[in-house]
Amino acid sequence: MTKHRFRERVKSFFGSHVDPEKDEELKGTKAEIEDKIQKILAYLKGEHGRDEKEPLVEAVEDFHNHYQSLYARYDHLTGKLRENVHEKDSSSSSSDSDSDSDGSTRKKGKKNGKLKFTEVTDGIKEELTSANLEIVELKAQLMAANEEKEALQSEHQSTLSKLQEAETTICSLTNEAEKLKEENSKLLGETVDLNENLEKSAKLEAELMQKLEEITKERESLLLEKETMGNSILEGNSTIEELRTTMGQLKEEKETLQIELEGLKSELPSVKEQLDSAEKEIAQLSQTQKATEEDNSSLSSKVLQLSEEIGQAQQKIQDLVTEADQLKGMLDEKEKEFSSHKEIHDAHKTEASTRLRGMELEIGSLQSQRSKIEKQKEDELSALLKKLEEKEGEFSSQMEALTTKINNMQLEIESLNELKGKLEEEMEQQRNKMSAEVEDLTNEVNKKDQELESLRGQKLELEAELEKKTQEISGFSSEIESLKQDIANKSAESLKILEEKESSLSQVKDLEVELKSLQNLKHELEEKLTSKDETIVQLKNDKEMMQDKISEIERALTERGSELAILRKKSEDGETESSAQIAALTLQVSNLQEHSENLQVQKSQIESQHEAKAGEASEYLTQLEILKEELARNTSDGQRMLEEKEGLVVQVREEKGSLLSKISELESALAEKLEEHGTLQKKLEEVQNEASTQIAALTEEVNKLRQQTELLQTEKSQMELVIETGKQESTESLAQAENQNTELSQKLVDQEIKLKEREEAFGKLVEEKDSLVVQVNDLQAEV
Fold it and tell me: In angstroms, rounded to a whole number, what is the distance separating the alpha carbons of residues 273 and 282?
């Protein structure tokens, strides 16, 4: 509150001396600078589009030119202040001989100035009560000096003649002093403008601090989002491991099914052998039938009954042959059913593949959304970082921290480039591997299709093809294991990338801590410089009344500059220079006022005692010469101090110019590094997208293998049913064939018995015939 009141009083005292034209010019330049800053922010936020680098560069160059023009204007003002200080010093050396002609006007002007000055000093006394004791001591010293001057007045009468001659010179000097006062008032008005600019810069500082806090909050939220994404990635890895376990189980089930299929296939040849044996027996029966037909053809007249029975046997044999043909047809139908089941299996496989593709597309869309969200957050982070860097670029207080950050960023970018190269090489290798594997898989699928087609036409090659399939499945299992290892490696790489991001964030925090420590060091150095300046001012103005008050004003200004030194090094440099110049000007004004008051007192005393002490003029002239020498010494000391300060100002300007050049170079380097960072982020996103596509492809293959195992299980169940039905039918047909064989064998035995009986009867008939022939021959012989 005390500083604010003091600032208001200084404004009220110096406000009338402000140049309105310069004030309007400063306001106009401020408005232009604010418009340009808004344009730059709009370009950075991307409100006008994406590809707007050229207008942004033009806006930055225009803003830099405006800043250079303001800096030149500030140099011009400081030059004027130095000229005014030199003129005031030259005028103060010759202001001890004043005339009587313009005494009344000077007294009025000085009284008015004294009233204003006393008002300001009263306000300062209220705020700085600690200085009252020192002021009392200085007043005591002034009283002692006045007593000494009164003692010298007796000797001063002789100097009146010479003082009258010096009055003309004093008038000219007073005119010059008035001119200097007018210029001083103008300079004070300009200092008021500078104070207003300081207040505005303080407001800007507060706004920037708020923005920094908001940015830190956004960074923390982004870190939380990254942690959640890392957790989601870990959950995805756990699901992948669960899928791997299920794949192993499905592989085991598939192997068991293959073993059962091989057992069933081993049973098929035994059934085929039984059928072949039945067919051979039927062929033998047909051969025996043909033999019996040939035997019975000679006995056709006698054995008609046998021929009828043989016809019946032939019909039965034909029935058996038809039954065998029917069994063959049943086998063909079973084969057709097996082929239809395989076609259904292929259809299910295609449907499952389409479903898997749909699921993969959904997973890809979710991953793309996740990548877009990450991209947006990273873009927002990059935009906020750009804003911060531009705001920090406007204040040179953080240039050392920025250089360290840039070096760290370069190291990080180099490491990211190396990681990027490694990732690109690994991704190219993986792409080549995956393409080769896909080609192998397509070739194997084509081979499988050909093998299925050949299986439909060739029953005897089932065993060899099953062995090939088992070998192919073992190859698939090895490939799946390699793919699992690739997935694990990719997950580890993604975790490494997340850890590197977290380490980079920790490095940024460490850099911020270093920046704060550097700012504290800078603050301490500035306090040391201000203390040195205060000691110089104390050595220069030991015999002046208002030295302590003005030094306290300088301290207040330097404290204000140290508070503003966190984010505004440029404004602080100008502030310290202006505060030093204002302090020097106020000191010189106070010295001039004190000298003029002393001269007026001396003049009044000399005029009152002019007639009584004319003889003591010579001694007074000698004392005046001594005083002039002391004044000359003081002025020479002041000029020396001013020259030293001017040297410091020149050094500060040179350092400022070098810092500005460094700022421009660092800004260009930052722009390049930001572009490289954007390209790296894009490449990393592409790598992540490719990894997500590979993971999706692997999940597709896993799902396909699952479906294949499920289909194999269904095929196994169907084959078991078919084999069981075939076994039942074959057992039934074999039982029927055996029954028929037994019946035929019994019939053949009966027929053989009947043939033997008939042969015996036929032999008997032949014997009877022979006997009858013998009897007929005997009878003929007898006749």
Answer: 14
The Cα 402–Cα 666 span in angstroms is: 8
N- to C-terminal Cα separation, the chain: 188
Q: How far is Cα 194 from Cα 318, in angstroms, rounded to an integer?
A: 128
Say how far apart CA 209 and CA 217 lie, in whole Å. Answer: 12
583 neighbors 553 (Cβ within 8 angstroms): yes
Q: Domain locations in the chain? A: 2-222+545-614
- Confidence class for position 672, pLDDT limits 50, 70, 90: confident
CA-CA distance, 604 to 618, in Å (whole number)? 19
Question: Which of 78, 111, 31 is CA-nearest to residue 597?
Answer: 111
pTM of the model: 0.18
SS3 609: coil
Length of the chain: 783
C-alpha angle with apex 604: 602 to 609, nearest 5 degrees? 90
Find the helix packing angle between 132-153 and 617-782, rounded to 10°: 150
How far apart are the C-alpha atoms of 213 and 400, rounded to whole Å?
21
Task: Kindly report, residue by residue over 444-502, the tens digit of the pLDDT.
Answer: 666 766 665 665 566 566 566 666 666 766 666 566 666 667 666 766 666 676 676 66
d(CA 648, CA 645): 5
Is residue 93 very low, low, confident or very high in pLDDT (cuts 50, 70, 90)? very low
Interatomic CA distance for residues 172 and 557, integer angstroms: 36
Longest dimension (CA), the chain: 240
| CA 480/CA 475 separation, integer angstroms | 9
Please, how many CA atoms are within 13 Å of residue 205, restricted to the half-sphere of its CB? 21
